[in-house]
């Protein structure tokens, strides 16, 4: 596929020079995110996140399968991140780039390894039957900061998702179709989010949040902090060669916590709205009609 | 202004009465049309059919993002690397590189040719002879008839002194815009014909007389240079927002005022 | 003839960084498509006289398999006919179609991880690709419209045709057909599954042609069309026309 070309010397120099004067090309503050929007699809478990010109679609699905032999009491949970040529023509199908590998590892550490989803609850019959939950992350448009947007989309999709209801009766497992029984939500323990800082300048003294693609190409290093709204840090990944002062990093994590609380609120709010929308004409709507009178 | 025609989709038949018929001049077909011998003229893109009976020409007006090289277009290219006798330049991302001969600069000889580093921006013209679909496009930074640069050449040169023109304004920055907007900016009377007054406003009363330079490339890239980085950012944002939101004159005026206030 | 779906919906230019893009939803299917091109082709795809058209179909969940590759090759050959590939030798026109939503069958728990795309998604894929190409301004010979039709055979009497069938209808149908026509009225694509007779195929062809190729209503014919609207199913060509009209009007607001 065609190569990704570095930005021009002019752009590289200008971005750095402007940052020294406390300016970003889109006029944002250093700790300001681009407009963030989250919508849910018609089906359960589809989340669409727009962050400026970056757009991520995440879809959660579940099926019954056999658990791994060494973990008979756990269900299976996977996050699939594959960047298609839709993200950028320089990505090729089935040929992972560095961006893709880093993204999938970060999501893995942030969501899967932090125990956000209770995998034991996915077990149906020990050693024989369990749920396999899978999230597919599709990057539709890439204008920087795929990590934060993708993490938000994954968490939102999983919290929105409903898996088919099941019952055990005399050793017989029944999986109900959506027509028979309303599907049930996953057992969700905490919501971790990623906040990525990009560093600029000779010693990485300038730190900005939510870098655009151009800023990402010019930065000297980056640091992704994953944490939940209680301030529990799931992972910190510092990438890029330039060393960054420890005090700067500490400040960064402080701001990250504030951002994570905003993300958490956004997901909660959108989930509530979606629930109301789905309940239209149902029990809730009836109650409200009576109240009006 | 040419009379406005109907909306056309690829492959539609054009009403023969709309085709201009000039007694002497040959019919000239512009972008978005193709001629199927003997007499059929068929649109290939979706847009508005525009005809000019005086020049006996017709074309389709539409907007897109992917630049296709065409002779004599002024474009903003980026040097990729140097070969033995030419620079390879990028006009649009992911397309085949264009060649810019080392001697296609004003007064350039083998000894005095400008040394351009990879990543350097040049404002260049697509040579009339190239832009053939079977060849990679060729660029020039000098007029073949006068031998003068006429404003073409490396821009926003950083670190070197060999560049002509705008070396004093710092690196400046490049902003991506749609091809239709680039075309409107390049119109001789962009305010009247193209409905863009945003640059004039920024340099005039509404913008408080900002001092800046621009170089608009038909390939959908604008370079903005100024001594003040703040001005570059302001102009760039104003251009991109005007393009994105499709602002009219009044909208542009309001946008300029808003941005100037914000960035004080 | 019965139809199960509401009118199609589309939005163009939804992906700001692609050359062209479209989001299309109809009959429960939602597909987002991006087009980049003409761009530089890889050496192995390079053709000395024409552009290579690359179609990538990505299911919403799970990894693509042979089913997707099959659909890709069908679409690839159809779209190569539409695009003026000879204009761009040694280039590549890349079309990526991302399935976002497909109708669920509430009566079965499908195996999702190894998702296999449904046959009936083809019209949505085709339509998205055409809209994205139009949005990118890629030169084309003609536009195209597509539809899916299922033949339900009754115990007795003539078989009924279902336009834009649901997943459930396809399962119970005797045969399913996907047809696409160019704006010149030529048959661009015909794929069928199941058992059917030549007579059935003929009636499927006539119905599909009616949906895909109905000429835009003229002023005199308007009233007649309004009367028949309910019985005639969706008018794909009219839909394409009005979608593009909105796009062009937005692009040329300064005129």
From TrEMBL, chain A:
InterPro entries tied to this protein: ExoRNase_PH_dom1, ExoRNase_PH_dom2, ExoRNase_PH_dom2_sf, Exosome_comp_Rrp42_subfam, PNPase/RNase_PH_dom_sf, Ribosomal_Su5_D2-typ_SF, Rrp45
Alphabetized UniProt keyword annotations: Cytoplasm, Exosome, Nucleus, Ribonucleoprotein, Ribosomal protein, RNA-binding, rRNA processing
Keyword RNA-binding: yes
Domain of life of the native organism: Eukaryota
MF GO annotations: mRNA 3'-UTR AU-rich region binding
One GO cellular component term: nuclear exosome (RNase complex)
Ranges where the Exoribonuclease phosphorolytic domain occurs: 32-164, 191-257
Gene Ontology biological process terms, A to Z: exonucleolytic trimming to generate mature 3'-end of 5.8S rRNA from tricistronic rRNA transcript (SSU-rRNA, 5.8S rRNA, LSU-rRNA); nuclear mRNA surveillance; nuclear polyadenylation-dependent rRNA catabolic process; rRNA catabolic process; TRAMP-dependent tRNA surveillance pathway; U1 snRNA 3'-end processing; U4 snRNA 3'-end processing; U5 snRNA 3'-end processing
Subcellular location: Cytoplasm; Nucleus, Nucleolus
Presence of keyword Ligase: no
Pfam families, per the entry: RNase_PH (PF01138), RNase_PH_C (PF03725)
UniProt main location, coarse: cytoplasm
PANTHER family in the record: EXOSOME COMPLEX COMPONENT RRP45, EXOSOME COMPLEX EXONUCLEASE RIBOSOMAL RNA PROCESSING PROTEIN
Similarity-based family: Belongs to the RNase PH family.
The name this protein goes by in its record: Exosome complex component RRP45
UniProtKB/TrEMBL annotation, chain B:
InterPro entries: Exosome_RNA_bind1/RRP40/RRP4, KH_dom_type_1, KH_dom_type_1_sf, NA-bd_OB-fold, Rrp40_N_euk, Rrp40_S1
Localization per Swiss-Prot or TrEMBL: Nucleus, Nucleolus
Keyword Cytoplasm among record annotations: yes
Broad class of where this protein is predominantly found: nucleus
Domain K Homology: 172-229
Pfam families for this protein: KH_6, Rrp40_N, RRP40_S1
GO cellular component, one term: nucleolus
Keyword RNA-binding among record annotations: yes
Ranges where the Exosome complex exonuclease Rrp40 N-terminal domain occurs: 27-66
Gene Ontology biological-process entries: CUT catabolic process; exonucleolytic trimming to generate mature 3'-end of 5.8S rRNA from tricistronic rRNA transcript (SSU-rRNA, 5.8S rRNA, LSU-rRNA); nuclear polyadenylation-dependent rRNA catabolic process; poly(A)-dependent snoRNA 3'-end processing; TRAMP-dependent tRNA surveillance pathway; U4 snRNA 3'-end processing
Single GO MF descriptor: RNA binding
Family of the protein in this entry: Belongs to the RRP40 family.
Name of the protein in question: Ribosomal RNA-processing protein 40
Organism: Dichotomopilus funicola
TrEMBL record, chain C:
Domain Exoribonuclease phosphorolytic: 10-139
Gene Ontology terms, MF aspect: RNA binding
InterPro entries in alphabetical order: ExoRNase_PH_dom1, ExoRNase_PH_dom2_sf, PNPase/RNase_PH_dom_sf, Ribosomal_Su5_D2-typ_SF, RNase_PH
Location relative to the cell: Nucleus
CC terms in the record's Gene Ontology section: cytoplasmic exosome (RNase complex); nuclear exosome (RNase complex); nucleolus
Keywords linked to the UniProt accession: Exosome, Nucleus, rRNA processing
Biological processes annotated in GO: nuclear mRNA surveillance; poly(A)-dependent snoRNA 3'-end processing; rRNA catabolic process; rRNA processing; U4 snRNA 3'-end processing
Record carries keyword Signal: no
UniProt key word Cell wall biogenesis/degradation: no
Similarity comment: Belongs to the RNase PH family.
Protein name: Exoribonuclease phosphorolytic domain-containing protein
Originating species: Dichotomopilus funicola
Higher taxonomy: Eukaryota, Fungi, Dikarya, Ascomycota, Pezizomycotina
């Amino acid at each position: 596929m065609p190569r990704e070309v570095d930005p021009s010397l002019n752009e590289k120099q200008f971005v750095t020079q402007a940052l020294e004067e406390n300016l970003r090309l889109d006029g944002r503050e250093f700790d300001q995110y681009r407009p963030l929007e989250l919508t849910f699809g018609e089906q359960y478990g589809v989340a669409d996140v727009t962050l400026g010109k970056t757009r991520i679609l995440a879809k959660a699905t579940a099926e019954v399968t056999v658990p791994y032999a060494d973990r008979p009491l756990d269900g299976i949970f996977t996050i699939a991140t594959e960047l298609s040529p839709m993200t950028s023509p320089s990505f090729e199908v089935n040929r992972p780039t560095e961006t893709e590998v880093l993204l999938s590892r970060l999501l893995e550490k942030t969501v899967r390894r932090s125990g956000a989803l209770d995998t034991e609850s996915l077990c149906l019959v020990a050693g024989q039957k369990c749920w396999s939950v899978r999230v597919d992350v599709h990057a539709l448009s890439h204008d920087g900061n795929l990590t934060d947007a993708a993490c938000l989309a994954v968490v939102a999709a999983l919290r929105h998702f409903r898996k088919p209801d099941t019952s055990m009766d005399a050793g017989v497992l029944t999986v109900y179709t959506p027509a028979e029984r309303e599907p049930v939500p996953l057992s969700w323990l905490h919501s971790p989010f990623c906040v990525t800082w990009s560093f600029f300048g000779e010693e990485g003294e300038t730190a900005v949040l939510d870098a655009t693609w151009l800023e990402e190409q010019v930065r000297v290093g980056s640091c992704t902090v994953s944490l939940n709204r209680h301030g529990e840090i799931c992972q910190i990944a510092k990438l890029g060669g330039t060393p960054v002062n420890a005090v700067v990093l500490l400040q960064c994590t402080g701001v990250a916590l504030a951002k994570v609380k905003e993300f958490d609120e956004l997901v909660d709010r959108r989930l509530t709205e979606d629930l109301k929308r789905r309940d239209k004409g149902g029990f809730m709507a009836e109650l409200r009609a009576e109240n009006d009178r | 202004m040419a009379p406005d025609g109907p909306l056309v989709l690829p492959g539609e038949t054009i009403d023969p009465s709309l085709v201009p018929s000039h007694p002497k001049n040959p019919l000239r077909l512009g972008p978005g049309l193709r001629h199927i011998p003997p007499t059929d003229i068929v649109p290939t893109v979706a847009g508005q059919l525009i005809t000019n009976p005086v020049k006996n020409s017709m074309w389709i007006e539409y907007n897109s993002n992917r630049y296709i090289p065409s002779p004599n277009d002024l474009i903003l290219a980026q040097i990729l690397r140097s070969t033995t006798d030419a620079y390879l330049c990028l006009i649009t991302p992911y397309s085949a590189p264009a060649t810019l001969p080392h001697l296609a600069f004003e007064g350039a000889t083998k000894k005095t040719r400008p040394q351009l580093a990879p990543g350097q921006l040049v404002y260049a013209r697509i040579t009339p002879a190239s832009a053939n679909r079977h060849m990679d496009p060729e660029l020039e930074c000098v007029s073949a008839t006068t031998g003068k640069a006429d404003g073409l050449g490396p821009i926003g040169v950083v670190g070197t002194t060999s560049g002509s023109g705008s070396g004093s304004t710092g690196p400046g920055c490049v902003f991506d815009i749609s091809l239709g907007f680039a075309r409107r900016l390049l119109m001789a009377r962009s305010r009247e014909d193209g409905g863009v007054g945003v640059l004039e406003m920024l340099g005039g009363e509404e913008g408080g007389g900002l001092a800046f330079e621009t170089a608009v490339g038909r390939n959908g890239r604008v370079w903005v240079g100024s001594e003040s980085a703040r001005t570059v950012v302001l102009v760039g944002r104003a251009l991109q927002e005007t393009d994105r939101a499709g602002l009219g004159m009044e909208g542009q005026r309001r946008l300029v005022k808003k941005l100037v206030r914000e960035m004080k | 003839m019965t139809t199960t779906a509401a009118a199609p919906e589309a939005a163009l230019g939804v992906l700001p960084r692609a050359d062209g893009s479209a989001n299309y939803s109809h009959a429960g299917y939602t597909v987002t498509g991006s087009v980049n091109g003409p761009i530089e082709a890889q050496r192995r795809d390079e053709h000395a006289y024409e552009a290579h058209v690359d179609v990538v179909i990505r299911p919403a969940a799970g990894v693509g398999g042979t089913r997707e590759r099959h659909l890709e090759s069908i679409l690839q050959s159809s779209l190569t006919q539409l695009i003026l590939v000879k204009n761009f030798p040694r280039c590549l026109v890349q079309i990526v179609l991302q399935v976002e939503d497909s109708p669920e069958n509430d009566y079965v728990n499908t195996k999702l991880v190894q998702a296999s795309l449904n046959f009936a998604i083809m019209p949505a894929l085709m339509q998205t690709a055409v809209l994205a190409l139009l949005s990118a301004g890629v030169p084309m010979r003609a536009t195209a419209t597509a539809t899916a039709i299922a033949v339900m055979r009754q115990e007795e009497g003539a078989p009924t045709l279902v336009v834009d069938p649901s997943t459930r209808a396809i399962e119970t149908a005797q045969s399913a057909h996907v047809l696409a026509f160019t704006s010149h009225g030529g048959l661009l694509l015909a794929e069928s599954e199941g058992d059917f007779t030549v007579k059935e195929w003929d009636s499927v062809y006539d119905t599909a042609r009616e949906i895909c190729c109905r000429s835009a209503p003229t002023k005199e014919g308007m009233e007649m069309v309004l009367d028949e609207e309910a019985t005639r199913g969706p008018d794909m060509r009219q839909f394409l026309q009005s979608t593009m009209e909105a796009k062009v009007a937005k692009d040329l607001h300064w005129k």
